[in-house]
Structures are given as C-alpha cells and as structure tokens.
Amino acid sequence: MLSLFVGVDVSLNNNVVYIMKPDGEKYGSLHVANTKSGAAVLVDRIISALNTLNLKKVVIGLEATSIYGDPFVMFLREDGKLASFDRAIHVLNPKLVNEFKKSYPDLPKNDDVDSFVIADKLRFNRGIPPAFEPDYRYTALQTLTRQRFCLVQNLTREKVRFGNYLFLKCSGLAQDKDFKNTSATTIALMEQFDTIDDLANADLNQLAAVVIKASNNHYVDPECIAKTIQAVARGSYRLPRTVNDSINQAMSVSIANMRFLEKQVKTLDAVILKQFEIIPNTLISVPGIGKVYSAGIIAEIGNIRRFKSQASVAKYAGLVWNEHDSGNFEGEITRMIKSGNRYLRYYLLEAADSVRRYDSEYMAYYDRKFKEVNRFQHKRALALTARKLVRLIFRLMKDNRLYVTE
To answer: pTM of whole model > 0.90?
Structure first.
C-alpha cells in the first residue's frame, strides 16, 4: 500500500513538518506550534494531502527528543479525524536519523532539513522501530521505571563521589577489598570518627561495637575486623586539619544524598509494583528476574507483537554488535551498537546479572563467556547473557507462558 510520509522535527515551542509523497517528492512543509491547536492544524493538513493524493495510509515519524514529542504523539493517536486512515507513528532514535543524514552530503541548511531526513528515513523503511501502540498502561509504567533508572544512575554517581572522599580521608580503607566503599560499616566509621588518628587510636571494644551495630552483627569476629580497620587506618595518608574538615562536610552531604536516593528508589519500587499489577505477565516466573526488572522490561517492550522476532527485540535494546572483519581478518573486540533503547538495555542487563545467580544454565553460560577473553570479561559475559535472556523473554511473552526449569 502506498503511503504518505510525514517527518516532524519536534522542539519545545515549535514543530517543523515535511510531507513527502510516496515517490519521495515533496508535497509540502509547514511550521506549527507544539500545542494542541498546532497539532490539529497538522492533522488537517495531513488529511488534505491524503485526500488529494488518494492515499489511505500515513506514516509519521519524529525523533525521541526528551519529552517534547510525547503529548504530540498521544494527540495523533487519539485524534478522531485520522481514525478512518491507516496510520503508523514511529519515534526514532536521534542517532539513527543522524547517521542516515550523513548519506546526503549536499543538504541545504534550513529548518526543513531534519524533518525531510526523518520523512525519507521512513520512506526507506530500514531500521525503523515498531510503531507506537496506544496502550497507556505501558506508558504509565514506563514513566515510573524510567524515573527509577534515573534515580539509580544518580545513586551510582553519588557512591562513586563518596568513594573518592573516602580515599582522601582514609586511603587504606578505600584500598582494602574486604571493605565495600559504601557499606553501612564504612559509612558508620566515617560518621563517627572525625580523623584517621581518632580511628587508628580508638578503643578496640568501642570500635568492635560500632562494627557490630553498623553491620547488623554480620561479621563472625568483629574484634578481628576492628583490628584490621585500625591497621589500614594507621597506614593511610594524613590530611591537614582544614582539608580533613572540608572532606568530613562533603562526606556528610554525600551520605545524606545516598540515603535520600535509596529511600526514593524504595518508594518508587512500591509504586511500580502497584502499577505492574494491572499488566498480565509471565516474566516474574523466571528465577531472579523479580517484579521490578520485569516491569522495566515490559514497560519498554510494550506489546510483544510489535516485534517480529527475538532478534528485533535485541536490536531495539541495542544488544547487537558491529562486525569488525575484513578478508580473512576478524577482530577480537566488537562493540555494541549505540542506537538501542538504553532503558530496556539497562533492565535486561540488570535482570541477566540477577538471573545468572539463580539459574544454573545462565550461570554456566556466563562463566563460559567470562573465561573466553582476557579483557572486559564481566561486561562482555553479562551482555551476552542478557542477549541469551532476550530469547527466553520473547518466547515467554509471545506464548504467554510460565518459565519452567527442567
């Protein structure tokens, strides 16, 4: 079926639109406000073009530009005037559009260029993601799971920042692999002892009591742990008092930030689980995948029938690798593509890391891939395990069946 192609360059205030005929020729272009009334003007123009060209299908595309295009896409899906036509709306990764744009060396420099490239990308129909499906259960869940992703990223950055402060204040404790930089014990020590000399010279029983309380009596021999802490404290660098005081203040803020973010993640997890209850799923039957990771995966995939195969899901997530070979040469290091859905990739990687700890098949697969190379072992093995997990997820969602271990 011949289609009308509409490329939209979305921004905060305005949308630049390019309307292309089925043969690639220009039908028209216009600028409309990124408002409800502006979108209504565009719909009228699209319908006029469809009627003039005697077409029944329109393919509309725009880049995933922050959140500026979300209300616009929802308006197009809900508008009754377009209901009598076959319509497909695609939200494209900006990197895909940018790479496609490079194939046009002599493009003019005007506002219509990006919208033209989007329309032509739709016309070629190569590497186009599945069309937007108007099931707002997924949209609502996606809002929550993406916010969780952002919180976790902020928490990770804050932990790295705290680790830097820890090295400055107590380099030995930061270097000792037996103590996690952001463990409850490490944080309690940094809060209760102003200087490393205070820590190194503390009463052993007092120090052991701090370890017991902070670790919730995790250690078998807390007195031995206390001796180890004092030993690494004695071997650490000493800071000038003024610098040490500033580090203490910065650490205090960092600790407060970590606790706040951890609390917000827990709060959001509870909301995600409540929203997730209205979406039937079978992924939670996989050992280790959990409800939160299942929610993150399903929120990004949406209706699994949008995807033709497990390979298309993997490509959508960016879990595919660029080939690096020429003639008889084949490179040992190949990198994942950068154009995938980063939220889906994140939840798949986190789920894979959890599943491998519970499922013997995935554990064996991870270990085998880990031993195959000498560089980037964990990252490579985890990515390949996530790629294997995609095949399972696709089949469970497609067939709506539970995972049963043999």
So the answer is: no
